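Consider the tokenized backbone below.
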């Protein structure tokens, strides 16, 4: 199987972040780490930032985009920007997302919008194996 870049992985802990970057490093691919839905409200921007920073420090060669999900609360997204979060997602009406995107652009922050396939590591018994499989292109796709 061929490794593929920018696969989306929902992390729920520091162990998940390190596991994702460990496998990405091993395979030589970039990844997108997403917080759990609404994590800005209960985990907080500073904790998410520190979880990702520790994983990045352990695997500095891996290109990673880390996205904090702020639910539908633009205040949490603005707070995340103030805490140094480089990418946020918000599920709100387009007008609010557009205003938030304007502010984010001024601060060099990405307002992330992608609803493609994602690997959610919640309750994974073998997260390393799941991540390894997720970061590979299926054999069938290469045959087309």
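A designed sequence for it:
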């Amino acid at each position: 199987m061929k490794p593929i870049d920018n696969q989306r992985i929902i992390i729920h802990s520091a162990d998940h972040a390190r596991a994702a970057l460990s496998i990405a490093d091993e395979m030589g691919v970039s990844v997108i780490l997403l917080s759990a839905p609404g994590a800005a409200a209960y985990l907080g921007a500073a904790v998410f930032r520190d979880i990702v920073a520790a994983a990045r420090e352990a695997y500095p060669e891996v290109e990673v985009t880390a996205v904090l999900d702020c639910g539908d609360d633009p205040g949490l997204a603005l707070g995340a920007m103030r805490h140094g979060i480089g990418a946020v997602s918000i599920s709100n009406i387009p007008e609010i997302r557009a205003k938030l995107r304007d502010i984010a652009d001024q601060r060099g922050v990405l307002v992330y919008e992608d609803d493609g396939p994602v690997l959610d590591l919640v309750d994974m018994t073998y997260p390393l194996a799941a991540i390894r499989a997720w970061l590979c292109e299926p054999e069938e796709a290469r045959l087309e």
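Residues 139-144 have pLDDT under 50 and may be disordered.
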